[in-house]
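Why does residue order matter? Because the sequence determines the fold. Keep that principle in mind as you read this record.
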Amino acid sequence: MSKELIRLSDCTMAFDQNVVLHNINLSINDQEFLTLLGPSGCGKTTMLRIIGGFQQPTSGDVYFDGVRINDVPPYKRTINTVFQKYALFTHLNVFENVAFGLKLQRPNGKKIDKEEINERVMEMLRVVSLKGFEKRSVSTLSGGQQQRVAIARALVNRPKVLLLDEPLGALDMRLRKDMQNELKRIQQMTGITFVYVTHDQEEALAMSDTVVVIEAGIIQQIGTPQHIYDEPQNAFVADFIGESNIVDGIMLSDNVVEIFGRKFQCIDSGFETNEPVDVVIRPEDIEIVPVENGMLTGTVINITFRGVLYDIIVDFAGYKWLIQTTALSPVGTRLGMRIQPEGIHIMKKSQFSGMFGDYSSYSVEYDEIGDAEHEVEIDPDAEDV
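Structure:
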């Protein structure tokens, strides 16, 4: 089992009367890549600043390696931060930027000698794939290269934790993806704990060991990327982590849920009999079949080509479903939909119920080409699926 390195215990943060973090409890393990994920204003950067010592929580405690550090200033914590704005020194070259912090250190009251500084800087430049760039001016580097310099400058001090506050936000999409892979490689190579802040769910899923989903200053769910995607705890998480069709259902019994008045097999259990629930069905888990073979049927009202896949909006009795498929079904096509039991995920009702999951706003043409007047059409055998 991994060793706990950082713990936030009952941390609340308020600015005047505005509470931005509510009773946060979070453990971060040694050598873990943990991502704080949520929309703008949810409190994720405030959590990062509390860990780094830039802000003290209004109440609660912060522990580092078992020691309370609420009153320890940032420069005395073995924690470094990389911000979205890299704040490189334009009058210094790459080597001098990375070496800057080492030249200021006084371990045991003495300066670090030039030979050690040179060795550590060159080691970090190799880690971030910038060997040979040491004499370059940072103003001549690309955005991705500048980010690597900022990371090297942070890592050369050998922190136990690196905090990254949306560091890829200024990069284009291709470079962002390249840097996602690079950051994960660096984290695994160095064994340093990374705490990463982003609003981009694809980044969180691609890089993290653990994802912490935050909304309105409250942790909504903590888990591995796959667990959070496959088993979201509420409608907010299901909608924020990927695309989701979220419909009302009634849990009739273990492994049987009622949707649109008919029974569907699922793999969830442990709910009360006849308990109202939210039902999540991911777009990629819906199979398009001939109308006569469909559990549900509907009309295609919008198509968007996404490269490998098509996003298809299907109107079923007024509810707009999103289906992701490699097969093109033209607008106006009547089609059937089949959903396997493992493609149906059941969630308890929450304050987010009814807020997400219907793609009615996907296209401005819905009011004109919708299919709401059709009766619910379900194959008679759907009772047994």
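The chain has two domains: 4-230, 244-384.
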